[in-house]
Design a protein that fits this description.
The protein has about 120 residues and is mostly helical. The chain has two domains: about 1-75, no CATH class; about 80-115, no CATH class. It contains seven helices and two strands. The chain has a two-stranded antiparallel ribbon with strand order 1-2. It is extended and about 55 Å long. This is Uroporphyrinogen decarboxylase. It comes from SAR324 cluster bacterium. GO terms for molecular function: uroporphyrinogen decarboxylase activity. InterPro entries: UROD/MetE-like_sf, Uroporphyrinogen_deCOase.
Length: about 120
């Protein structure tokens, strides 16, 4: 097991002293980060495919590390759980459900997400 080199965020969340206020940045990288834009261009896959690929999601999640932040946010989308629930989607350019959920029967047919 590795030892954390930067535990500022964890320490402050546990009400422990820190040497400075932790920095945690939430961003939409696609609009501002040249490294993210280049990665997307080189990869060529649709955005929803990147969310589903752990290796690329990790690479994208770690891009802000060069800024000296104290925590990162896993590269995902709030809609990511829809696919395992049986409500696939794609971006065109915004999210589009493959089969829109419009009735209570369709809601009841959705599967519960198992995080394991």
């Amino acid at each position: 097991m590795s030892v954390l080199k930067n535990d500022r965020l964890l320490r402050i969340l546990n009400h422990l002293p820190v040497d400075r206020v932790p920095v945690w940045i939430m961003r939409q990288a696609g609009r501002t980060d040249p490294q993210y834009c280049q990665l997307r261009k080189n990869d060529g896959r649709a955005l929803e495919k990147l969310f589903a690929d752990p290796e690329i999601a990790i690479k994208i999640s770690l891009l802000p590390k060069r800024l000296g932040v104290d925590a990162i946010i896993m590269f995902q989308d709030i809609l990511t759980p829809l696919t395992p629930m049986g409500a696939g989607f794609h971006f065109d350019p915004g999210p589009v459900l493959e089969r829109p959920v419009r009735t209570m029967a369709q809601v009841k047919a959705l599967r519960a997400v198992d995080p394991e």
